[in-house]
Design goal:
ABC transporter involved in vitamin B12 uptake, BtuC; two-stranded antiparallel sheet; 13 helices
Length: about 260
């Protein structure tokens, strides 16, 4: 359930030319949501889910506003603004770790690595409503995402407002990702690698790739978690393991697609 939201959001945001800027900034949301969740862990009165969602959404909105110029958002400016915002929240997270109680510090450090060894039914009950609601909303948007994939001009030609439609995708995607981060920590590169794998197997049609990515994402995390528990005498954090697996795969995708820095 924790991996499926990242995988579900990917097919909607990555293939569409009109939504590509959102896919860039959404990839920085987990670390910013991580700061919000870590802040909630050190502040008893602050709700964990709400804090992760608000800070994740703030990071996405701030990155988009900084990159927007003359009603346009270029890929380069969006990547740079996302790196800046992510770096700011990473610094804030470091300051929070430095100032927090040593006993809470251990919890925060293990949590930022991404792990499932503290999984419980209480966490499932807290995250499941938000995740299922967000993924259901994304599933209902699958037809419109195929229209958005054609570009802004084509979207307007069929009577849809592309900016509004992107927002209707961005909000539930951020909510689902933040809810997962709040209970499982930062599990890296899942939202980038799994959707690409699904599209390579099934194709770019969102009506098929979205439910497939949701299912494949959960199965992928289950497999990785089993490997992290059994390959060594100690349990590796699953977030570290996904990054070790996903990094080389994403490099392969970059070389295969010959992705450059064009705006």
């Amino acid at each position: 359930m924790c991996c499926s939201p990242f995988s579900s959001a990917g097919p909607w945001l990555q293939p569409a030319r009109g939504c590509r800027p959102f896919s860039e900034i959404l990839s920085y949301a987990p670390i910013c949501g991580a700061f919000g969740a870590a802040l909630a862990l050190t502040t008893p009165w602050l709700p964990l889910q709400l804090s992760a969602f608000l800070f994740g959404l703030t990071a996405v909105a701030l990155s988009y506003v900084l990159a927007r110029s003359r009603r346009r958002v270029s890929t380069i400016s969006l990547v740079l603004s996302g790196v800046i915002v992510s770096g700011m929240f990473t610094s804030l997270l470091t300051i929070l770790q430095f100032l927090t109680d040593p006993f809470k510090l251990q919890t925060i450090v293990h949590w930022t690595m991404g792990n499932l060894h503290n999984a419980s039914w209480a966490k499932v009950r807290s995250a499941a409503p938000l995740i299922l609601l967000s993924c259901t909303w994304l599933f209902l948007m699958r037809w419109r995402m195929n229209v958005l994939a054609l570009g802004d001009e084509e979207t307007r030609s069929v009577g849809l407002n592309p900016e509004r439609e992107k927002l209707l995708v961005l909000l539930p995607a951020t909510l689902a990702a933040s809810a997962s981060v709040a209970v499982a920590g930062v599990i890296g590169l899942v939202g980038l690698v799994v959707p690409h794998m699904v599209r390579m197997l099934i194709g770019p049609d969102n009506t098929r790739s979205m439910p497939a990515a949701f299912t494949f994402g959960g199965a992928f995390l289950l497999l990785v978690d089993n490997c992290s528990r059994s390959l060594t005498s100690f349990e590796l954090p699953v977030g570290v393991f996904t990054t070790l697996l996903g990094g080389p795969f994403f490099v392969y995708l970059l070389k295969r697609a010959r992705i450059g820095w064009e705006a």
